[in-house]
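Summarise what follows for lecture notes:
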Amino acid sequence: MTRQDCWDQFVETCEEATFFHRAGWRSVIESTTGHTPYYLYAEQNGQICGILPLVEVKSMLFGHSLVSTPFCVYGGVASISDAATTKLIDHAKTLAETLGVDYLELRHRQAKTAGWLTRHKHATFRRPLSNDEGNLQAMKRKQRAVIRQAINNEHTATIETDLDQFYHVYSTSVRNLGTPVFSRRFFQALQAAFKHDCEVVTIHHQGKPVSSLMSFYFRDEVLPYYGGGMPNSRSLKSMDFMYWDLMQRVTAKGFATFDFGRSKTDSGPYHYKRHWGFEPEPLCYEYHLVRATQLPDNSPNNPKYRYFIKLWQHLPLKLSQQLGPYLSKNLA
């Protein structure tokens, strides 16, 4: 068994581990962004008892950091013992200081590092699945009406292996939000790394793609992760149909948990997910400052990025697709 196989075997069984701890992220990030990974593990009696995936991110715009894990909602230490957790965090601090980064960032769901600086700007949204009627009843009444309207608008859902329609819809959506898109190669690498645990679904209306979604599967969970819609998807409620279609399909397959991902506290997506019957779970991102003197703020809500966001929203789509990957790889 290879070391990667041993790593992923541990991830499958460790309660603290998440989809974003899987070894495949190492190859995806390294091959498509050029960032340097440092995947640490602790062993006891020849068996892995703790892991900490780290990636060094160097950016002229956003600084020099060591993050677990960039582009991912969760990260940090996953272990089966306090001793392993302590050793991995101590090693990460030493590595951060050796590399001379500005800061070390661990994206934990719950705090693990006493005395570190923390940030609670995001919440994650997870809840158990029951059956179609139970899933509907868990939502607010207004959201149930929206889903019925979306169904009446006669959408169709198609599972795809080709990324053409997904990339067109997703890149259009994030351009309209003022966000640089990842490269097509990044999404191809995700498909190659996670195979049947990575699914792309495109929603059509009258034969035209209106929304599209890349989801991940992990143990008994589904994680709708990269999703977007065309401008008319809002009035058609296409993205509501997209998420409801996924929820129906995974419920029928016996999946137990729907992980709706993170959103910034009190933002539009934050309240949208609450309408679906999800309650926010604050995330605890923890920081060890090395060269930096204060916590980083690379959020799009930072006033200094407002002009850039407005400018990006008006770029031609093709140009945004060409320029986006050079910037998005640094938005860790």
